[in-house]
Amino acid sequence: MQLLPSFIDAAFMRDLLITSVYFALLLAIRMSVRHAILKRDSIEPEMKRRWLVTVRNVTFLLLLIGLALIWASEIETVAVSMVAVAAALVLATREMILCLLGALYRGSTNAYKLGDRIEINGLKGQVMDVDMLSTTVIEITPASVTKGSVGRVVTIPNSQLLTQSVFNESQLGRFVMHTVMLQLPRADNWQAVEAAMLQTARDEVGRYASDLVKHARDLQRQHGLGVPMLTPRIRLMFENFEFTELQVYLPVPLVERFDIEQRIIRAAAEAAHPSPMEPKPQPSL
């Protein structure tokens, strides 16, 4: 009496046993490495996250390669007899295949890594996790009139990397060029606003001038770039008949750009509409 199906033979049982041992070995190695990384207090949390994600992705890749090698003969037999099914399967899993290709594209181009601030298809966020199918970011897009909720965790399929441009604000280090734009009615005193914005921008850059110079030298040495702009510049535009537009360009630390922008805008608002001076009390006779 035959107890097992006809397709289960000695070779099948051997491959099944090897697969079980291989899977258990990979799982044990991953758990050991994960425990060792988490136990190291000397490693920064950001670096720990990067290593944990790398270990997870490498383990997954080794599992796929091992399964393909172990079951190569069975896969070949099934593939030959299921060409039509394979074509249908490719169509059904098209999005997943595109996600895997997107992960390959990200890894080969080093488009971004954990902790980078990126923008994809209008969504800005800080990368908190990456895997073979998706990228997870914490949203940092500024709130607007139509969208007041920010700071959400957003999962982006890697397939978007093949069709959308990726802007990485962290690629060249902790400093970026930032533009502060302001529109004033033509009747306002734009000269006073211009002076206030430029002076505030200079004061801000003065706080981190030494770090900025060092950063510029590092860019020249590592990437062969020319000397970036190290001082604030202001541009005056009269393209609109009703408004005067001022644009301030200045280098800022990536994590402080919104705070610096607000200080410059507040200085401009105070210059445009100065608070009336309170009358001094008269001495009594």
Structural notes for this entry:
Pfam families: MS_channel_2nd. It comes from Paraperlucidibaca baekdonensis. Keywords: Membrane, Transmembrane, Transmembrane helix. With 285 residues, the chain is an alpha+beta fold. Among the domains are: 83 residues; 98 residues, Alpha-Beta Plaits, CATH 3.30.70. The protein contains 8 helices and 8 strands. The strands form 2 sheets. The chain has a 5-stranded antiparallel sheet with strand order 4-3-2-1-5. Helix 1 runs antiparallel to helix 2 and helix 6 packs antiparallel against helix 8. The chain is elongated, with a radius of gyration of 29 Å. The relative contact order is 0.08.
Short structural summary:
With 285 residues, the protein is α+β, with helices and mostly antiparallel strands. It has helices at residues 10-39, 45-70, 72-81, 83-92, 94-109, 190-207, 209-223, 257-272; strands at 117-120, 123-130, 134-139, 153-157, 166-168, 175-185, 233-237, 243-253.
List keywords for this structure.
alpha+beta; Alpha-Beta Plaits; five-stranded antiparallel sheet; three-stranded antiparallel sheet; 8 helices; MscS_channel_2nd
